[in-house]
Design goal:
single chain; alpha+beta; ten-stranded antiparallel β-sheet; two-stranded antiparallel ribbon; 3 helices
Amino acid sequence: MSKKGKIRAALGGLLALTLVVTCVAVYQSGSKSTPNEKEFVKEDEKDSVDEAIKTEEREEEETEDANTSDVEGTKAVEEEKTPEEQTQSTTEVTETPEEATADTEAQAAEDAAAQAQNQAGVAAAPDVNFTESSLMEWPVNGQVVLDYNMDNTVYFPTLNVYKLNPAVVISAEVGSPVAAVANGKIISVTENEETGTTVTVDMGNGYQAVYGQLKDVPFQAEEYVTAGAALGYINEPTKYYTEEGANLYFALSKDGVPLDPMEYLP
C-alpha cells in the first residue's frame, strides 16, 4: 500500500470512530433526557395533587369557619334573651300534659262554681206574690200621726194645710230600723224633697210599697228583700214634717192606685 492509501485508511477509520462516538453520545443524551422529562412530569403531577389537597383543605376550613360563625351567631342571639324570656321559653316547652290537665280542671271548677253561685242566687230569690188577702208586717213600732185618706182632707201641721193623704205617717225615733212589710224586689232608691231617701218595692201582682224618710239603705235596684229585712233606718224629718217629728212615710198601691195600708196590717 502506498503512503497515500495508508493516510486515506487512517482518515476513514478516524471518521468512522468519530461517527460511532457521536452516535453513542447522541443516544446517551436522548436516554438521559427522557428520565428527566418523566421526573418533571411527576413533579408537576405532585405539585398539582398538593395544590388540590391544599385547595380542599382551605375549602374545609372555610366551611368550618362558616359553621362556627353560625353557631356563634345563634349563641349570641340566645345570650341576648333576658333570663325571664329564657325561663318563659323553658316553661312553655317543658309544660307537661299533667299541668295542662290541671289547668283545664281548674277552669272547669271555676265555671262550675260560677254556675252554682248563679243557681244559688236564683234559689235565694224569695216568693214575690202579694195578694188582696195578704197581710203585711209593721214596718216600724210607733203611733200613726197622719192617717191615710183619699176621700177627705187631712190636716198637715208643718204645712198648716188640709189635703188628701195617699200614705200613713208613723212616728219613730231617728235610727230605728225599718222592716220590709213583705217579700219584694227593689224598684228604685231615690231622693225626694218631701220624703227624703225613698225606697219603692214591688211585692208582686201589681202591689207596690213606698218607704220614705230613710237613711243608710243597704239595697239597690233589682235586689230582692224578704219580709222583716231592714230596708234602712229612720232619718231626721224633711222640712215638710218638722212639726210631726221623725217618722216613716209609708204608702201602698195596686196598679198605681193608692190603698189604705191599715187594711193590710194586723
